[in-house]
Amino acid sequence: MKDVKIRDLIFLALCCDIGLFAKRLISPFANVVTDFLKIPGGIGTSFSLMFLVIGADMIPVRGCGALMGFVQSMIMLSLGMTGSMGMLAPVGYIVPGIVIDLVFYAGRKTGSDHAAVMMAANMLASASAGLTANLIVFRLNGIPLALYVTVELISGALCGGLAYILVKRLRPLTRTMKKNETDGKCLSEKNMEGTRS
Q1: Does some domain include residue 46?
Q2: Which of 40, 135, 160, 195 is the most buried (most CB within 10 A)?
Q3: What angle do CA 163, 27, 171 make, to 5 degrees?
Q4: Strand locations in the chain, DSSP E?
Q5: Spatial separation of the C-alpha atoms in residues 98 and 36, rounded to whole Å
Q6: Is the CB of residue 147 less than 8 Å from the CB of residue 37?
Q7: pTM score, two decimals?
Q8: What is the distance between the alpha carbons of residues 119 and 30, in angstroms, rounded to a whole number?
Q9: Distance CA 93, CA 91 (A)
């Protein structure tokens, strides 16, 4: 984390914030589906985790998924938005962050397809969030649990695909920003050399 720039940390913080509040926005629509299926949730969580996947992909620093999950959990606690998990809510955010880190680490080691890695990260993070919530609160078993995890996996795959599309759009912008920053540094160094001479 020592080599991470302030700009990158701001981007990660932005991903945390957008993820939290995007979940609040989509929850009413997602609840229509989950209420029909008689399961606690899943779709909103997958959409929220999509932004952590984007952050972990754009800023490939070891442990940034877990860090974003921790930051999200602290924001939730400070705002009193813990939901049914209460004080154990941080576990439900940190575990998916760790899963995102592990999937990206495995993907980079094996040289897997970029889109597949992002989809797998979102899928498995969503499933881990669902299983953590089930262990702490819901205590589902049998068919309801299988349906719950299936919805998490499917919505996670769809959101992972969307994350890949968004990253493809964002990456050229970040490259342009980095190039402008490098050009600016080179120009300032030349000006300093000119003044010295």
Answers
A1: yes
A2: 160
A3: 15
A4: none
A5: 31
A6: yes
A7: 0.81
A8: 20
A9: 5
**Residue 102 belongs to domain with CATH number:** 1.10.1760
Tell me how many degrees the CA angle 73-77-82 measures, rounded to the nearest 5.
85
Is residue 194 in a domain? Answer: no
Positive or negative, the CA dihedral 153, 166, 179, 114 is positive
Q: What is the pLDDT of residues 110-147, one digit of tens each?
A: 988 899 999 999 999 999 998 988 888 888 888 888 88
As for how many domains the chain has, the answer is: 1
Q: How far is residue 140 from each of residues 122, 128, 134, 145, 179, measured CA to CA in Å?
A: 22, 14, 6, 5, 51
Q: Is residue 68 part of a domain?
A: yes
The three-class DSSP label of residue 150 is helix
pLDDT in tens, 11-31: 898 998 898 888 888 877 877
For helices 142-196 and 114-133, what crossing angle results, to 10°?
130
* Domain interval for residue 54: 6-189
